[in-house]
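Structure in, sequence out. Go:
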């Protein structure tokens, strides 16, 4: 990851949008796949430009074509939602799985959500639980929140209030 893209991602994730927009000024045609992903996000959210799902889709597709995991995940979500494209759950699943394969931990949560809700796959709460567990082991706190819900309600795993409370303690650290 080059200096511009790593700084841009840091600013985007910390929601320092004014600094991000200044940093990216004149880089709309950048070939860096992470920068393309960030531009997709800016168009998706309407930050510093008019909200435009078609443009967001184009940037996510450019990013994903270069195997950028953030872009792959975003493109997969767009295919599931039909944002800037026709709904295509098969392509959505493909890109989310690619993102998982390329190491984006957040994509494990996205894939878990897909299995939990049977979105283009057979609903499989246990598989969702396993994916949330893997993401939690890799430090994703969003996944920990889902694991708590699974243990509290017996979703994809036997109900275990003690385990849910143990995870709540982990969240509050």
């Amino acid at each position: 990851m080059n200096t511009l893209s790593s700084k841009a991602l840091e600013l985007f994730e910390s929601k320092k949008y004014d600094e991000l927009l200044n940093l990216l000024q004149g880089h709309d045609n950048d070939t860096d796949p992470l920068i393309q992903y960030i531009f997709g996000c800016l168009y998706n959210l309407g930050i510093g430009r008019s909200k435009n799902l078609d443009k967001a889709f184009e940037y996510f597709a450019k990013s994903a074509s270069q195997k950028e995991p953030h872009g792959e995940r975003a493109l997969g979500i767009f295919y599931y939602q039909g944002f800037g494209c026709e709904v295509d759950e098969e392509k959505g699943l493909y890109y989310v799985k690619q993102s998982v394969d390329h190491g984006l931990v957040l994509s494990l949560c996205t894939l878990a959500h897909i299995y939990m809700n049977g979105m283009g796959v057979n609903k499989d709460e246990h598989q969702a639980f396993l994916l949330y567990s893997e993401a939690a082991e890799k430090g994703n706190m969003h996944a920990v929140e889902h694991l708590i819900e699974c243990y509290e309600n017996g979703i994809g795993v036997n109900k275990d209030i003690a385990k849910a409370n143990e995870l709540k303690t982990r969240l509050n650290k």
